[in-house]
């Protein structure tokens, strides 16, 4: 949930009619199963202090939201490193959410040539 909120879920409205242009999953992108790491292990600690719950477990609703800003910080540092490596001037950058791939490319100020992937021959 948090990753989608910060990186993918962008709502777009028509400027003239105000109609929501992202009202289905064709346009409104949410995280899918493929966005989860293949090796995603969870270990339940046996010596925690909630004896009323199964194996002293706790709720897991908040961590996805609380930890998601770390994705934004990682992308911010990657953009800054990319800009520095390409000799771009240091300046204040505004990281509006969600940080979609298009917004990240705009922050990087990449050229069209930089966005092309060379084919191996």
UniProtKB/TrEMBL annotation:
Q: Which residues form the Aldehyde oxidase/xanthine dehydrogenase second molybdopterin binding domain?
A: 1-37
Q: Has UniProt tagged this entry with the keyword Cell wall biogenesis/degradation?
A: no
- Please give the Gene Ontology molecular function terms for this protein: iron ion binding; oxidoreductase activity
List keywords of the entry alphabetically: Molybdenum
Coiled coil, from the record:
none
Domain of life according to the entry:
Eukaryota
Q: Does the keyword Membrane apply?
A: no
State the name under which the record lists this protein. Answer: Aldehyde oxidase/xanthine dehydrogenase second molybdopterin binding domain-containing protein
């Amino acid at each position: 949930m948090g990753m989608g909120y910060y990186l993918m879920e962008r709502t777009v409205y028509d400027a003239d009619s105000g109609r929501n242009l992202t009202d289905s999953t064709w346009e409104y992108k949410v995280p899918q199963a493929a966005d989860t790491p293949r090796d995603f292990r969870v270990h339940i600690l046996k010596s925690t202090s909630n004896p009323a719950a199964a194996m002293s477990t706790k709720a897991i609703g908040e961590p996805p939201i609380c930890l998601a800003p770390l994705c934004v910080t990682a992308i911010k540092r990657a953009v800054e490193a990319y800009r520095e490596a390409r000799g771009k001037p240091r300046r204040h950058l505004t990281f509006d959410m969600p940080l979609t791939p298009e917004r990240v490319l705009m922050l990087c100020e990449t050229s069209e040539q930089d966005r092309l992937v060379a084919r191996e021959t």
